[in-house]
Write a structure and sequence with these properties.
The structure is a homodimer of 400-residue chains. Chain A is 21% helix and 30% strand. In chain A, strands 6-3-5-4-8-7 form a 6-stranded mixed beta sheet, with no helix packed on it. Chain A has 4 domains: 10-24 and 181-324, Molybdenum Cofactor Biosythetic Enzyme, Chain A, CATH 3.40.980; 26-44 and 154-179, Molybdopterin biosynthesis moea protein, domain 2; 54-141, Molybdopterin biosynthesis moea protein, domain 3 (Molybdopterin biosynthesis moeA protein, domain 3); 332-399, Beta-clip (Beta Barrel). Chain A is built from 7 helices and 26 strands. The radius of gyration of chain A is 31 Å and the shape is elongated. Chain A has helices at 10-19, 162-170, 209-219, 234-247, 259-272, 305-324, 371-375; strands spanning 26-30, 54-55, 59-62, 76-83, 98-102, 114-117, 121-124, 127-130, 140-141, 175-179, 183-189, 193-194, 205-206, 223-230, 250-254, 274-278, 282-283, 289-293, 296-301, 332-336, 341-342, 348-356, 359-362, 378-382, 388-389, 394-399.
Chain lengths: 400, 400
């Protein structure tokens, strides 16, 4: 076998990885548990919102034609017909020369076409002096003006925020149809690995990838299922993968930082199904494996956490979004470069960037440094066809 | 009582609200449950990372002085001393003229000061031909180069991301000291309100604020505890507040959209403790109440969800961050305005903005529209001393 991987471009790898994404079935969850879940169908309002013409101020409902020319020195004088109560239907209509008090959110009585704010009214016995002229439609919203039954309220694929949950509540959506969260198995391989509660001896290192991957999966709406550390042993890896494939929708295997171990991982995946990609033109992350066993994608990630994280962001996020149907946009920010960013043509570089007041700086230094994960605020993608960027260039940074 | 509130500026309201924030005690949680929690103390590495000099490539550890002038046509010839295994300490040192295979992540043997990548080496029997000259220190990282015991690893007040969790794992932090999550009581008031599973009749509306506030509290790291709908009745509100104050760290009361109900809410809070602020120069959100009963802050929010959300973002977020010790920065984005944004001097306007390809547009229209919550991507704050912004201005938008 060659030293060199048969690498493909990131865009092609993305097509492969999204092409094998398992489509999650839908499930209904109570609205109170729907936050951050992915809406599985367009939500259409069952009724108009508001369901009635509604004042948006505290004031007097009236006919705007009664206020023509009204001012502080020459107020319009109207007869008060009492008050409308919150939540109740007015039992009276308004005629010319009359008005009725309506609180914010109260229903507009028939006949009225405007509401004068109390700040511009004066009460004199049973008469109300209105000190401003009002236009028809002023200070109230009509039935269906906010949402009407023809609209798509929230489209399929939306990740539900607190604001969406509020709007769904207003529309009476007590149960929400969302995509089931994919269960993502996480396996860390490597003879050098120990669990985090142990003290390393000799050349041992603690297993960071289990926690990094679990956190990433949680962020992306999946449910992480860690299987712990597996030694660099064909049978051990095969058994762990077999269990994970049976129990999960997607499996992530990190490790195999050396060529031999990577090859063993690829061979093991091939023995259980197929390897579609072994090698992506991405730095860091070149030895990435994309394979599957039956319908379960198995993704081989670099062993070093800082490299693994770049592949999670650049490729695995797309796999999870496709599985849940999330219409996700990468959160990017346009920044000016405070330093040159050189890059090799023909490979997509993902450079960790520190966003500083005078601009964005690349965190180069040696690969294999974990601290770049927390010193950086995002990733700069340098496309394969570019040789980098120069100081002063405006670039889009994928913000963590 | 006057129609007009005794309003104070937003910055002053922020000082009041953060001044009464309850300081959450700390607790230890397993690393696997620490994501999105707030770190309660500076974390300092217990050991150096890496704990040994470590190769960052697959290759041959050697003395760089043996490779001076080496090239493809004139390779350096070194004697192979075998392989170093992952996780194990080399039992041999390297001398001039020798090299040893080391996988990525393996420990560098004594004597070696560089690692030649296998891509630039050729194996000829027991000899290795190295086709590149190497500098001392090339392709390995030294003990403590990533994190050393003197550093602050992650500072107090950090909201732990998946990347932080990975770095904590690498440092052997199996239990993390975080701030306890504040329990935030949520009360919705209003005679017009019905639960979301009911169909509104007459001028009834469904209770959206319970879900909006609960989602916001979850986003900000608190634990929402909803108490449901309370009618606009002094005794009912008093009883609900009393229960919530006894069970929660912070209480949010929304509603009182009309002046009378707002006054009743303020009076009820005053009867249980004190009202510190009634009226903030913010639009929307002017009738905001800041009070407390004993050590429990009680925040009165506008009844309309779209207005309540602005107050949550502009003020209540600060209260929660102060309670948990989170060093939070509002996530803002610099955008160019595609439309003028007028604003009244003397009051801080928070305008919902749609971020479109040609720039940011204000979503004005009438107040009282919920749809702006989901049509907008963020808020533009217009400071009290400005009269607005003009088309073409660069502005900072607080992104949802």
């Amino acid at each position: 076998m060659s030293f060199f991987l048969d690498v493909i471009l990131v865009d092609d790898a993305r097509k492969v990885i999204t092409g094998i994404a398992p489509a999650m079935p839908t499930e209904n969850v109570p609205l109170a548990h729907s936050q951050n879940r992915i809406l599985a169908e367009d939500t259409v309002p069952a009724t108009d919102i508001p369901g009635f013409s509604r004042s948006v101020v505290d004031g007097y409902a009236l006919l705007s034609s009664d206020t023509v020319g009204a001012s502080e020195s020459m107020p319009a004088m109207l007869t008060s017909r009492g008050r409308i109560q919150m939540g109740e239907e007015p039992d009276t209509a308004i005629q010319a020369g009359e008005c009725i008090y309506v609180p914010t959110g109260g229903m507009l009585p028939e006949g009225a076409d405007a509401v004068a704010m109390i700040e511009y009214c004066e009460v004199v016995g049973d008469e109300i002096l209105v000190q401003r002229a009002l236009a028809p439609g002023e200070n109230w919203i009509s039935r269906g003006e906010d949402f009407s039954t023809g609209d798509v309220l929230i489209p399929q694929g939306t990740k539900l925020s607190s604001r969406h949950c509020g709007v769904l509540a207003a529309n009476g959506v007590a149960d929400v149809t969302v995509s089931r969260q994919p269960i993502v198995g996480i396996i860390s391989t490597g003879n050098e690995l120990i669990t985090i509660d142990k003290k390393p001896v000799a050349a041992q290192v603690r297993d960071a990838n289990t926690y990094l991957c679990a956190g990433f999966v949680t962020d992306q709406g999946g449910i992480p299922r860690p299987y712990g550390i597996v030694r660099d042993d064909r049978d051990a890896l095969h058994d762990a993968l077999k269990t994970a494939v049976a129990e999960c929708d997607i499996v992530l295997v990190s490790g195999g930082s050396s060529k031999d171990d990577r090859d063993m991982c690829a061979d093991t995946v091939a023995g259980m199904g197929e390897v579609l990609v072994h090698g992506v033109a991405i730095a860091p992350g070149k030895p990435t494996i994309i394979g599957r066993a039956g319908k379960v994608p198995i993704i081989g990630l670099p062993g070093h956490p800082a490299s693994a994280y770049v592949v999670l962001i650049a490729l695995v996020a797309d796999l999870l979004h496709r599985a849940t149907g999330e219409r996700a946009e990468q959160r990017t920010r346009t920044v000016v470069l405070a330093e040159n960013v050189p890059s090799a043509r023909g490979r997509e570089d993902y450079i960790r960037m520190a966003l500083e007041p005078d601009g964005a700086r690349p965190l180069f230094g040696k690969s294999g440094l974990l601290n770049t994960l927390i010193r950086s605020q995002g990733l700069l993608r340098v496309p394969a066809e570019r040789e980098g960027y120069e100081t002063g260039d405006d670039v889009e940074v994928i913000v963590w």
